[in-house]
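=== How it folds ===
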Amino acid sequence: MLLWRCLTPLLLITLQICKAQDCHKFTDLNFGHAFMGTSTKIRLLLYTRDKATCGTLVSHSNLSGHPQFNLSRPTTFIIHGYRPTGSPPVWMSKMTEQLLARTDINVIEVDWNHGAANLNYFKSVENTRMVAANLTAFIGMMQEHGVSLSSIHMIGISLGAHISGFVGANLNGSIGRITALDPAGPQFTGTAPQDRLDKEDAQFVDVLHTDMDALGYREPLGHIDFYANGGADQPGCPKTIFAGGAYFKCDHQRSALLFIESLNGTCASTAFPCSSYTNFLDGNCLNCDQFGAAGCPVFGYDVIQWKDVLLRLGQTTTYFTTNEKSPFCTTNYILDMVIWNMKERWGYITVKLYYNGTEAVATIDHKASKFKKYTGTKLFAQFDKDIQSVEKMSLKFSTGNVFKPKYKLRILRIRLTHLEHKKRPLCRYDIVLEEGKEVTFRPIPCEESNF
């Protein structure tokens, strides 16, 4: 008995060590590896609901040795991009976790850190073809075991987006879906479709742009392209180089964070089809009739619900805005204002909504708005959060003119309309806004006669 008591802790420790050895992690390299340069090596890490935090290293040539790899389930591949420091992507495990929480699938993290970790970006670009060839062969082996290409979803960020495209092209565009998160721009911009991601590479291709003026790709590439905050500078990201590495990667990496949030159901980002970000902010692109009863598409994982109509449309470019941190999604309203000032006024409006101690804010300042007597001015108001109901609201008018006299905006009528919810619009009449001063009031439901 004494011997058993002594041996029990040792056996438990041994069991834990063996268990840990069965779990494979993403390759963790460092700047030294990137400085010396790495040659391509591809590891496929399988995660399922049964082993959501424990990766299984999958053989490239023998699937029968992995009973937990249930080929009757759909399979999603996650493919990272360029890794100049050699560290694992900070977003990878979270995306895997959220995908498995959302649906019962196989998730395969494609670890090509050996090949992506290289100070020579051009070499990493060259290595993407080898990664794509490897994945093409692996998926071909899956096909031999009865897997339908329609059940395969590839999620690629940066260089990973183009790897997904190469795989899709190798398989004649038959895989079910490619989600491209800020596809890499350098070395791909201006190239032919066969040398980059293209909407013909899968049955459905959805693309997010977040850093098109630096590391990302500018032009549309998919059946639907989402441009978050215009597709370039993301709110909350550093604006100067003094922020260090975050200045270079924040906008680019935001694409992965936005997609992860689309998985967990915290909130949804409605995207509006438009010809430019300026037209979108001006409120000129809020008509969703082309999408039928489903309305405008929602960015992220669930956009697959719009697949049929998007395929009919061919290519759709959409825009949406986000907050600077999670929860990223904003809530969209139209604010109609009619003034009775004798002279025209130009300026900016800040709107706040209040309910049960919660405050939602929308600042409409992308350009000065024109207010003219008895002429409606339509403003697109994007609030930082959604609130259940509106108990109070406030308005503040500003011109940005420091040295000129303070103006007043005499409002004959305002009307606030929620774009996503079919709620009755809210109105208020006869309000005077003194420049720079916030005015708070209780709106009332609009009457039909007021429209």
Summary: DSSP finds nine helices and 19 strands in the chain. The chain has two domains: 23-320, 331-450. The first strand starts at residue 41 and ends at 47. Confidence is low (pLDDT under 50) at residues 6-20.
